[in-house]
Amino acid sequence: DARQGILPQTRRHSMIASLLGIRHIVLAVNKIDLVEFDRAVFEQIAGEYRAFARELGFETIQPIPLSARYGDNVIARSQRMGWYRGPALLEHLETVETEADTAGRPFRFPVQYVSRPDLDFRGFAGTVAAGRIGVGDPVTVAKSGKQSRVKRIVTQGGDLAEAVAGQAVTLVLDDEVEVSRGNMLVVPEARPHVADQFAATLVWFDEKPLLPGRSYILRTETDEVSATVSHLKYRRNINNFSEEAAKALEMNEVGVCNFALQAPIAFDTFAENRVTGAFILIDRLTNATVGAGMIQHPLRRAANIHWQALDVTRDARAQMKHQKPAVLWFTGLSGSGKSTVANLLEKKLHAAGRHTYILDGDNVRHGLNRDLGFTDADRVENIRRVAETAKLMADAGLIVLVSFISPFRAERRMARELMREGEFVEIFIDTPFEECARRDPKGLYAKVLKGEIKNFTGVDSPYETPNKADIHLPTAGHAPEELAEEIEAWLGERGYC
């Protein structure tokens, strides 16, 4: 807008365009009619933008004064701005070279679908993301490293001798190598990265902030895997491009993060290939797209760490203890009675000869999590660490009782997904806020109501009640002993103890 000049939105969109690899920019200075077609206004905005964008790496910047309402400099050169000697918008757009040389890059074929219409045909369908491939050419399966050759290149219009970047085809290989959706067929001499950790630039879309440690769905061109931000390295300042320390990314902010994935994926860096180096993040609960990322490089430590095969297994440890390992996850407001019920239940299980351990919220914050506060980001990391610890204890064959407020559904779901099927038991100790405040066993509610404590769950920090807990225990009218007995009976009926 010629009346307002360079806005934060202009800076943000320019930075995102640069990150996306866009190299040609049109600075469309619109509503020039509302400033009387003033040349000085236009040149001041153009000069400010060029100075601002100097570090963004654009190859060309073409400022054009426009009046979209009246068509000035949109399709044809305006007669009302004799001082402007540059092209009209459409005229300029028709001359910009936009095609990237994807055909000249190493062959990449993300597999979208395995086609098996009958016993005699097995093809891999997808779109060539880069390079070219011909019948008889060797290919490698990115994740497994197995090699084969292209036997046929099938399309709806008939077989091809060669396919290039941008073409949708089905590749038939010489032999029965294992390839599934999400994998990639590549040229043997220039294979992509395969890793479960990488660094990436992330643009955040959602109203709720990005929180390191929270589990999201990461989706590439054809692959999908659970992922967390293991470390938010810094946030980009849109005004001067400086790197700023941050614990979260707010809506429309851009940051650089380390990602940890549940399983390895095949990828290139975004600079090498925009298709195989890009991803989106999806919220696990709402299924909304909350971020878009551009991979910078794999984290080499991911290639140096391997699972060690151990002779004594989880099942062997559980058999020795004559019990079924479980993680009993108690959730509820502060003062709801979680710790009291968990403590009573552990006494009963211990008396019955069961091997147990309690992870209590306050106790863990004195040691393992003593460096964490009570912001949303710290609460997410608090639960992530506890869930990983509980998983190790369950692997040791124990029945683990976890007593934490754990206010967010996403983190409770993350904890559940870390465990084996049936190993995680969510227990909702359902006590109304008013009753918790009346009990106030630690004197916290009194301080909260006086404004002495911030980020308190249920007051100025949300508590998301379970949608469908495995065990839902309303506490009104029930003694803690009754609730512990009810849980013990539930566990006994299902063979946990």
For the biggest sheet, the summary is: 7 strands, antiparallel
What is the arithmetic mean of pLDDT?
A: 91
- Helix percentage: 10-25%
Strand order of the largest sheet: 3-11-7-8-10-5-4
| Beta strands, count | 23
Shape from CA axes? flat
Q: What separation lies between the terminal Cα atoms? A: 70 Å
Structural class given helices, strands, pairing? alpha+beta
Radius of gyration: 29 Å
Number of domains: 4
The number of helical segments is: 12
Question: At the fourth CATH level, what is the homologous superfamily of the largest domain?
Answer: P-loop containing nucleotide triphosphate hydrolases
CATH architecture of the largest domain: 3-Layer(aba) Sandwich
Any idea of the CATH topology of the largest domain? Answer: Rossmann fold
Low-confidence stretches: none
Strand content: 25-35%
**CATH class call of the largest domain:** Alpha Beta
Please give a structural write-up.
With 497 residues, the chain is an alpha+beta fold. A hairpin with a 6-residue loop joins β17 (278-282) and β18. The protein contains twelve helices and 23 strands.
Quick synopsis:
This protein is an alpha+beta fold and 497 residues long.
Write the layout of secondary structure elements.
Blueprint: H1 8-19, E1 24-29, H2 39-52, E2 60-65, H3 89-93, E3 108-110, E4 113-118, E5 121-127, E6 132-134, E7 138-141, E8 147-154, E9 162-164, E10 168-173, E11 184-186, E12 193-204, E13 215-219, E14 224-236, E15 243-244, E16 254-267, E17 278-282, E18 289-298, H4 301-304, H5 314-321, E19 326-331, H6 338-351, E20 356-360, H7 361-364, H8 376-395, E21 399-403, H9 409-418, E22 424-430, H10 433-439, H11 444-449, E23 471-474, H12 480-493
Parallel strand pairs: 1-2, 19-21, 19-22, 20-21, 22-23
Antiparallel strand pairs: 3-11, 4-5, 5-10, 6-9, 7-8, 7-11, 8-10, 12-16, 12-18, 13-14, 13-17, 14-15, 14-16, 17-18
